[in-house]
Design goal:
heterodimer, A: 174 residues, alpha+beta, Ubiquitin-like (UB roll), 5-stranded mixed sheet, globular, B: 291 residues, Uridine Diphospho-n-acetylenolpyruvylglucosamine Reductase, domain 2, Uridine Diphospho-n-acetylenolpyruvylglucosamine Reductase, domain 3, Enolase-like, domain 1, 5-stranded antiparallel sheet
């Protein structure tokens, strides 16, 4: 897969690198310009538009994805840097037939209004629950403090994550 | 936003990386965590010809103590590693209190302490912490390694003394001569914002007496400020309320704040004083409880 840019410089050779990576469990090869951001590879190259670019300045966290299980802001990482690594996006949460408990939680507890921040919120929450299956409200607020929401006031987002944590714990107990 | 065009190399050894710095052209940048460099490149404040990504160089992600207690932090040790570190919690109160306050939790997964020192943002938190602790940066280049005290490493806003063919490979915190206490306090409008005011205090005591002290200030001047007179006022006696108040006044005098959207100069100066008192009184209170 190659991403085509407007050639505003219109001179010189365009450096291109071939990278191999895994996204949501699928192996991929892509040819990318080093200046391509991970967020753009995901959205434009792979068509996975669930990852949103909000502020584009490392503040809002809407573009949060997991790289090797750790949340990162994909607007602040070069796509070439995922060579040899594993990326998870919000599209990787649900299966063909079932929502992920986090997605169910956001639905049950009204964890979103406009929904723009939601994919980033869910990916940051996923990393939290992977590391800590029984978080306190404080743990959740701390883990999501790099993700901004301008609608909800966060109250229902926190409830959604608590809901998902309880569901995941009951599933693993059952 | 995306950066202007650049070449990219991801070497697998420091020698290879240093070679690229020597041959890569006039404007080469080293990429570690990228949480400052990538935004700068996107805004096109920085447009390097070549980016040397050191993330594939093995063995730089450590933080560990030598047998004598000297702490070493590798160039790829992330803020999140330091936040979770039991070693810091047990031995480095100032660093342990600063680690959870760097940027936000997601940025902390990528950003590095050594990178933050190199970036030399006057509002960078780690520079104050390392300055207060009397720490250094180890630079490696074609002529070998050299150790640069942080006080000499940062020469101004966004400026350090690294040669174009040198990489900062490690930060070093010297061994304590007494029992360590201290902390870092930061006033920010919201998580992830730059510090309105940050204060790092590192004290070493033997018995009741302070044997070494460092105080450094974030966000209240054109560069990180070492409040050396304030620190000197603590040395040679116990942490009494009077001595703490004197050090706090001297630290406030050392600040060079400017009025901006984060607050007035007078407010920021006041917060420096308050933070020094708060950090040191906490230490004194803990000692009283222990006694």
């Amino acid at each position: 897969m190659t991403i085509v840019y407007e050639d505003e410089d219109a001179q010189g050779e365009v450096p291109v690198r071939r990278i191999r990576f895994t996204i949501n469990g699928q192996k991929k090869i892509a040819e990318v310009e080093p200046r391509l951001l991970l967020a753009h590879l995901i959205r434009r190259g792979l068509g996975l538009t669930g990852t949103h670019t909000g502020c584009d300045t490392t503040n809002c966290g809407a573009c949060t994805v997991l790289v090797d299980g750790r949340p990162v802001k994909s607007c602040t990482m070069l796509a070439v840097q995922i060579d040899g690594h594993e990326v998870s996006t919000v599209e990787g949460l649900a299966t063909a037939s079932e929502l992920h408990p986090l997605q169910e939680g956001f639905k049950e507890e009204h964890g979103l209004q406009c929904g723009f921040c939601t994919p980033g919120m869910m990916m940051a929450a996923k990393a939290l629950l992977d590391a800590n299956p029984d978080p306190t409200e404080e743990d959740i607020r701390w883990a999501l403090s790099g993700n901004l929401c301008r609608c909800t006031g966060y109250q229902n987002i926190v409830k959604s994550v608590l809901w998902a944590a309880a569901k995941l714990r009951s599933e693993s107990a059952g | 936003m995306y950066p202007s065009r650049f070449r990219y190399e991801a070497p697998r050894s420091l020698d290879e990386a240093i070679g690229l710095l020597q041959t890569g052209g006039d404007y080469v940048k080293v990429l570690a965590g990228g949480q400052s460099l990538v935004p700068l490149m996107k805004l096109r404040f920085a447009s390097p010809e070549l980016v040397v990504d050191i993330n594939n160089v093995p063995g730089l992600g450590y933080h560990r103590a030598d047998p004598d207690g000297t702490l070493r932090i590798g160039a790829l040790c992330r803020h999140a590693d330091l936040e979770r570190s039991d070693l810091l919690k047990a031995t480095q109160p100032t660093m342990a209190s600063a680690a959870p306050l760097i940027a936000d939790p997601i940025v902390r997964n990528r950003g590095t302490l050594v990178g933050s020192l190199c970036h030399a943002d006057p509002q960078g938190d780690w520079a104050s912490v390392v300055l207060a602790l009397g720490g250094s940066v180890v630079a490696q280049g074609p002529r070998g390694k050299r150790v640069i005290p942080l006080a000499d490493f940062v020469t101004g806003p966004f400026q350090n003394v690294l040669d174009p063919d040198e990489i900062a490979v490690e930060a070093v915190i010297p061994v304590a001569k007494g029992a360590r206490s201290g902390g870092y306090l930061k006033l920010e409008r919201r998580v992830g914002d730059f510090a309105t005011v940050g204060v790092a205090v590192a004290v070493e005591t033997t018995g009741q007496n302070v044997t070494r002290a460092g105080i450094a200030l974030t966000g209240v001047g054109g560069s990180t400020i070492g409040a050396t007179e304030a620190a000197a006022a603590l040395v040679g006696g116990p942490l009494t309320a009077d001595r703490i108040a004197q050090a706090a006044d001297l630290a406030a005098q050392a600040a060079r704040p400017r009025t901006d959207h984060r607050g007035s100069a007078e407010y920021k100066r006041h917060m420096v004083r308050t933070f020094v008192v708060r950090i040191l009184s906490r230490g004194a209170a803990a000692e009283e409880r222990a006694a």
